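Re: weekly structure request thread

Next one in the queue (81 aa):
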Amino acid sequence: MREPIPTALVYLGSVAAFDAARGLGTVTDAQGRSFDFHATAIVDGTRQIAPGTEVSFVVVPGHLGRFEARALTVRRGDAPS
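Done, posted below.
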């Protein structure tokens, strides 16, 4: 039995793959779990994101009983002082 996925948390991870032509991608959290996402889930509105990009995201119930990532936000380093 799979452990439940909490949906009230903000997850940290990175984009594992992104197909710009289809607008579909996969993000992997710090524990190695993968979640699919659509380009419309990218918060900044660009609809494109490079594999390897560090992001924060939430997990929500999606289509066909699968969980998916939403509200993908690029994690930026601290601004120089």
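Strands lie at 10-19, 24-29, 34-38, 54-61, 67-74. Residues 37 and 69 are 5 Å apart (CA to CA).
Next request, please.
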